[in-house]
Amino acid sequence: KTNEVADMAKKYEGCTEGENVLPFTMILKGTIDAAVNGGILLYKRAFLSDDYSSENPGDKYKINKFADIVSTYVATLEKGLIVHGKVCGAALSPLQLSLEEQLKELRERSLM
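User: That's the sequence. What structure does it adopt?
Assistant: Structure tokens below.
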């Protein structure tokens, strides 16, 4: 999903307000909803915990790699929302604000 969001952000970055951004909106909403309601946070809880690290010292490289992936994922969603906020128009403004709040929650929970 990270690549899909990044590709969509790049595609819609040059759009102007009023163009059809619904495909971008749907990708962002689905990705952020899934992430906040479980998704990546469940994996984080399972594999980035102190317990997992201490029980699996041989997985240090994998743990660090996964932590980097989570950071990239959240940063990509942030960039996608910035682009979306510029092109979504007034009709989607309430949804944009909701997605921003959900992403803020995800960011706080993913960095804990």
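Residues 70 and 110 are 8 Å apart (CA to CA).
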